DNA sequence: GATGAATGAGACTTCATTCAT
DNA sequence: AATGAATGAAGTCTCATTCAT
């Protein structure tokens, strides 16, 4: 009865993702509580009522935003695991710059901020995020660091700590992008994240490098 | 009745800071928009009306929270500048662990989250924060790194980038503390920040160390 | 395609009454204001839009429900007037139990409740109902009572009052059926209306019986 | 701190009952769903917001209306039980005319309609009403009928049936008052309820009267 | 004819702010 | 100074009605 390609149908199929996109932009910009559902609808080019045809409440819309946006990048991250061999440091640099610059430029970076902002009001979100994003990502990178140590490429260090040293600045860059950065407040380097990521990894890897036999202590 | 030391007077003098404290806790926890002014009053043990005796609006309360809370830690940070001599690496480690652990445990860490969360709705905040907190802090650390390079203790690196590599994880720890961390979601190391800070600085300093004469490149 | 007996045609002809039936059930159950037009459509097995093909608005639907449902029972009641002769009491009992038990079990009983519920919002309904239902019914029964008096079978009583004494409990039974009764709240006798009607008429007729010559007053 | 007789305090104490009264009038007139909370507030002379200071939701307001309004009349009915002796018929007439005319003229009569109208949407209401109003009332009257039978004043009849024959027309009068009656549609007797009640009881009592020894059957 | 996506007026409810006490 | 009752603008959500398909 409804030609699947009718303009009506096409609109309908696109609606949810149009609404999700609009909602994400606004939730990230203004916060969940400060965003009016009518604004979301307006940004998606529909009326108030239409929003509620697709999502039963503003809160469900928030959860859908988070779930849907992450799924893509979660999947992408996992693929990288199937990386071929080579010096671990190089692999790490490639993986991180490539993957992370993607994340930074993708909607996922906005989700980082959103999760940070809203966890305390919606703890489910945090639970989901930890399980689906943080832990897999941590394991992925931690595995590489471990490999470097096993192969004698890296010093024996605390894996979890190194993973944080590597990752937290990158996460922070994402948060910055959607907070201070989005207001045009940007201290120097914040403006060129991929350059910073390269430098940062260079510094970290230098720090990880296995000491020479005669190695003097750092401090 | 107006003896400045009468309990009543003391109460009255304490009001603003009690209200600020209550407001900060709630703004950080739930966000500005989701916090009701009555809640703030209740948490400070006064009535709704009293809040408006001290602050003309909820928005002014927010700004006061941010201004007032930061002033203390800004001052403290500045003092460290008057640090005496010694190997730069050691100085850096001492300065950062000491100062930062303090920040992490002080209300300032909460303000980081609050600023991040609310800049886009209240850009003045961001402007103030950048000028009073970020830039001075950045200069402080950047100065130390520069000194290390000048003295031949560190490699010649991009100063701003290193400052970010050093600082961003620490900032991120603060944000975590008041978002995921406050919900009990904590991956491994997040639980012991001062230990992480020590490890992190160790790694960075190792990476900064001036290469030996025969220095092979890291990658 | 327009064969009047084609299944499609039959469907179409039945639509209005299917919709009316669905509407009545829901209006009686939940009240007019609390019933959604989509529910009516769904219960009739059609879509929202179709409802508006047959009735221009929810309010017109209500009026149609009331008009249409009553016409049948109004007609039936009138037929009884053409009753043959016999003792008036017996006639009254037969007429009332037969007719009323029918009414009680027919959709008309639901309409009683609906009219009661909605008159004040839609006074036309009340006017129609009074003219077409209440007054004819009252005259029908009043005529019988009058006949009984004329023939010396009944005491000389106030006709209108007796009609009410006879009829109101029966009306009340109808209302009960669609309010408390429909919720499973039922005091004793409410459960068996035809038995009650018999007893009630017996009591009333006993009260109407012309007194003996030596008649002592009741009180 | 607040003088208990201050105008402010006095208003505050009166608010709930003013709101309840306004709500009852409107709920009875238009039905619960069709009454806007703002109308209730306006009729009570306050603003929308104030209503919600005293009742957490429109639904709770409805329940409060029913509970509160009935309590008075429930209590009054119970007192009558402590009636002194005398011929049962006379007692019944006095009790019913007195009590019922009061009920008819009190807000309770409105509640009858409200309960009837809303039970199916709010079953708790029906449960409460059955337990607190219908059953006690039924027992009260049933007890009197039983006494009449025991003393040989009345025929041996089905008690519950008689109670209904007595009471249902009176209840119906109440419903009428707030439905058709309130619209000015009134068939003859409906206009003078206390006169009708007298006549009705007279008829019923005549029907209840114990038959003479030579008693011929009614039919 | 039939559908159901879309609309937007309007309902319920909240909450920042005021002000009489 | 302190209170908390009152307000009403504003937000979330619903639903009668329309109209493109």
Write the layout of secondary structure elements.
The structure is a homotetramer.
Chain A: H1 7-30, H2 37-43, H3 48-54, H4 58-79, H5 88-105, H6 107-118, H7 123-150, H8 159-178, H9 193-208
Helix pairs in contact in A: 1-2, 1-4, 1-6, 2-3, 4-6, 4-7, 5-7, 5-9, 6-8, 7-8, 8-9
The structure holds a DNA duplex (21 and 21 nucleotides).
How would you describe what is shown here?
The structure is a homotetramer of 219-residue chains. Chain A has 219 residues and is mainly alpha-helical. Chain A has two domains: 1-55, Orthogonal Bundle (Arc Repressor Mutant, subunit A), CATH 1.10.10; 66-208, Tetracycline Repressor, domain 2 (Orthogonal Bundle). Chain A has nine helices and no strands. The radius of gyration of chain A is 21 Å and the shape is elongated. Chains C and D meet through helix 5, helix 6, helix 7, helix 8 and helix 9 of C and helix 5, helix 6, helix 7, helix 8 and helix 9 of D. Chains A, B, C, D: This is TetR/AcrR family transcriptional regulator. Chains A, B, C, D: InterPro entries: Homeodomain-like_sf, HTH-type_TetR-like_transc_reg, HTH_TetR, Tet_transcr_reg_TetR-rel_C_sf, TetR_C. Chains A, B, C, D: Residues 13-73 form the HTH tetR-type domain. Chains A, B, C, D: Pfam families: TetR_C_11 (PF16859), TetR_N (PF00440). Chains A, B, C, D: Keywords: DNA-binding, Transcription, Transcription regulation.
């Amino acid at each position: 009865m409804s030609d699947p390609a009718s303009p009506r149908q096409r609109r309908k199929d696109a609606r949810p993702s149009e609404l999700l996109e609009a909602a994400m932009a606004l939730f990230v910009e203004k916060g969940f509580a400060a965003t009016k559902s009518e604004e979301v609808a307006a940004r998606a080019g529909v009326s108030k009522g239409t929003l509620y045809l697709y999502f039963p409440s503003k809160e469900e819309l928030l959860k859908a935003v988070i779930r849907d946006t992450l799924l893509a990048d979660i999947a992408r991250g996992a693929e990288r695991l199937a990386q071929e061999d080579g010096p671990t440091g190089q692999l790490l640099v490639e993986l991180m710059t490539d993957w992370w610059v993607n994340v930074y430029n993708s909607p996922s970076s906005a989700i980082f901020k959103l999760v940070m902002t809203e966890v305390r009001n919606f703890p489910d979100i945090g639970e989901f995020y930890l399980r689906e994003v943080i832990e897999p990502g941590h394991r992925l990178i931690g595995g590489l660091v471990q490999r470097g140590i096993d192969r004698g490429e890296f010093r024996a260090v605390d894996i979890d700590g190194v993973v944080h040293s590597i990752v937290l600045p990158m996460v922070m860059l994402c948060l910055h992008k959607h907070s201070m950065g989005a207001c045009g407040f940007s201290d120097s380097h914040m403006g060129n994240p991929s350059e910073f990521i390269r430098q940062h990894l260079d510094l970290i890897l230098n720090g990880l490098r296995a000491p020479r036999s005669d190695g003097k202590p750092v401090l």
